[in-house]
Amino acid sequence: MRLGATMSIVGFSAGGLISAFFSYKYLLVFDGVMYIGSTIVLLKVHWVEHTKSIQPVKKKQTVRNALQSGRYTFLLMVGFVYPLAASAYQYALPLIASVKEHGDLYNGFMWSTIACGSFICSLIIKKHVVNEWRYLVSILLFATFVSLTFIYDLTPVTFLILILVGATEALVQVCHYTLLQRSDENIRGRLFGLNTLVTRCGFLAGFGFIPLLAKMTSLWDLVDAGLAGDLLCCLYVAKLLF
Q: What is the CATH number of the domain that holds 133?
């Protein structure tokens, strides 16, 4: 989380500066160079698998049996709904900056501010305090701060709220992946795979429908509808499972 937040702080700011004062073409070149550099680094990494001690082979659980556990169903349900709702604010946030001169620069700084909040939160949160209810509270706080971001036009107060958005978003991510990591080792790999699938499907559905809904309603209503759906789903599943 800390490493990703640090890279986001630098990357979004650099992207905003390049796009605002040069051209998006230079931004594409910058992205391409970064991807090529990452590829070269990964190709040079030598993966060493440590020798495992001989232990009795445990029977692997099937996905169907794993999903009978309320905890796993809850995590996968939220893993789909959360990115579905988050795509609404990710789509709407750049539109706030677009009305300003050098909107690309403001957009980059806004995302860097969110990353700053994530970095600060990653220094504070401890994994041993994570549980399902704190996970739900973090989603509630995230939805509240995101909603506040769209009350007014872009002002200095907006950047203060975005720090809180980043902090609560980091809290959501840490809680989610800590709970996944605590799953039984016989199902953990499959559970992470399913989580990746439902997360991608959530973003696919969100960015597919959000632009269509944006033509029929305001940004405020659009973001609130996505966040409200997220909260209602989480609370409903929590009521059934816990």
A: 1.20.1250.20
Residue 208 belongs to a domain: yes
CA dist 200 and 221 (Å) reads 24
39: domain range? 2-45+66-241
Name the most confidently modeled range: 8-12, 63-67, 114-118, 149-153: 114-118
| One-letter amino acid of 242 | F
User: Got the DSSP string for 57-77?
Assistant: PPPPPPHHHHTTSHHHHHHHH
pLDDT over 60 at 241, yes or no:
no
**217: in domain:** yes
- Determine, yes or no, domain membership for 232: yes
Rounded to 5°, the CA angle 154-155-156 comes to 135
Q: CA-to-CA distance for 50 and 170, rounded, in angstroms?
A: 31
Nearest to 138 by CA among 163, 182, 170: 170
**Taking the mean position of all CA atoms in its chain, how far away is CA 135?**
14
Tokens of 155: 């002002």
- Answer whether residue 197 is part of any domain: yes
- The b/e string for 44-59 (b: 16+ C-beta within 10 A; e otherwise) is eeeeeeeeeeeeeeee
**pTM listed for this prediction:** 0.78
What is the number of domains present in the chain? 1
In this structure, are residues 230 and 143 in contact, taking their beta carbons and an 8 Å threshold? yes
